[in-house]
Design brief:
mainly alpha; Rna Polymerase Sigma Factor, Chain: A; Arc Repressor Mutant, subunit A; 0% strand
Length: 203
């Protein structure tokens, strides 16, 4: 009962905030930005792996939110709508980047050759307790995730790093639950194959 009441109150507060943003209230938009900026930055970082690109994408996400807030009809949660915008922008960015690299390098960008940012676990802060061995293991895992097909990669990122349930991922991506289950199953199977040569390093 208490959870239902809390969710109801949160839903009302979100609707109130959205209505104020739609009316052009800059303070309301700043509050929305402060509420979601960390999650959105972190999600962007999972796709591009550099702080500068993640910051640029994060700004683009909030510009998109500001420009399209009138299209949000409250049929889904605000967070679901924001995550959907973020994922779409990140995927479009990666597609353009892949095309550019293939044009000038002559081969595919996907695989194990891309450079990765050294701090994959918490890009917003320094963590002196995060040992080098853990970083290296995470690099290997992240590199393998980056080599997955985009639909599998997105589902796995949302589950692994954002802690979303299968139902939530389905809502963000506009897919059925069974489709997400299938994507995650294939992603984990492919991930195991890619990580097999690195078992000694990650275990």
């Amino acid at each position: 009962m208490s959870n239902s009441i809390f969710y109801g109150e949160k839903f009302i507060l979100n609707n109130h905030l959205i209505n104020k943003v739609k009316s052009g209230d800059t303070h309301a938009f700043k509050k929305l930005f402060e509420s979601y900026k960390d999650q959105i930055y972190n999600l962007c970082f999972r796709f591009v792996n550099t702080r500068e690109e993640a910051e640029d994408l994060c700004q683009e996400v909030f510009f998109k939110i500001y420009k399209s807030i009138d299209s949000f009809k409250s049929r889904s949660k605000l967070s679901t709508w924001i995550y959907r915008i973020t994922v779409n922008l990140c995927l479009n960015y990666k597609r353009k980047e892949n095309k550019f690299r293939r044009l000038f390098e002559g081969d595919s960008f996907e695989g194990f050759g891309s450079e990765l940012n050294e701090n994959l676990s918490a890009p917003l802060c320094d963590r002196p307790d995060f040992f080098l061995e853990q970083k290296e293991r995470e690099k290997i895992v992240q590199q393998a995730i980056n080599s997955l097909p985009s639909n599998q990669r997105v589902a796995l990122i949302l589950q692994r790093y954002e802690g979303m349930s299968i139902q939530e991922i389905a809502e963000v991506l506009g897919c059925s639950v069974s489709s997400i289950q299938s994507r995650l199953s294939r992603a984990k199977e492919n991930l195991c194959k890619r990580l097999m040569p690195f078992l000694d390093e990650i275990l």
